[in-house]
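Hi, here's the filled form for the chain we discussed.

Project: internal
Contact: R.S.
Residues: 304
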Amino acid sequence: MSKLPLALTCGDPAGVGPELIASWLKANPAAHSEVAVIGPSAWLKTLGIPSSSQFAVGPTDYKATAGKPDETGSVVALAAMEQAADGVLHGKFCAVVTGPINKKGFSQIGYTFPGQTEFFAHRWNGNPVMAFAGGKLTVGLVTWHIPLEQVAKKITRADIRKTVLALIHLRKKLGDKNPRIAVCGINPHAGENGLIGHEDDSIIRPEVEALRAEGYAVTGPLPGDTVFYRHQQGEFDAVAAIYHDQGLAPLKLVDFSSAANLTLGLKFVRTSPDHGTAYEIAGQGRADRGSLDSAIRLANALSA
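And the returned structure, exactly as it came back:
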């Protein structure tokens, strides 16, 4: 493990991020010196960790109300992301684990990125892939936060290739010698040989064949309604899904409390829980910490 601390950003202070971090710190007292917690000063004072592990952002008198997001909370969450990104660039932190943010609230303070993945890709000048791991499934997304009607227009061979190679790199770092990657089709039944759409045969299949010709263990396009079952049964080590919900619906059904979000293809490591702010249960002690545990565990493993 790197001697540099792992940055933990609060996310939206009104969401479940702060309480999940506090819970993790309580459960892992020996690891306090191995993390750098970034958030509002009023919250940091409640954590019981050394001042050297605390990095305050935002107004000093700001106190969030659980379950009630406000504009200042979004400003604080963004400032935490900024400090974490800069800290890694300047050798202060080894990697970043981000708490969940309020994307609508961010858009109202002038934030122009669809999510945190795009922000860190911009700040670290990378070519990112959104992926999820830590549980039974490993999933990468070819397209991310775009409307479903645009997916068939946006999918490219280059993005398929980038996603597959990023998944291969990830699985090798996690111990697989020759990772087996399945690539989903975009249409039902992977297009039925051209009967249901042309994208599977004109875009996905040629890139899969090109990757196979280079010696990679890649299979596809495969029907999205069966490939995740085959992955869970051990036939594949990871799945490249073509669009957001194609990959995340099965992943969250199987691994909601154990998977974490990873941004692959960057010079530095960034992970996060695979859930949102959960305002409806914030402050009630009901939030499941499993995904944050996975995010921290993966960040440490991948940045070692």
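Let me know if anything looks off before we file it.
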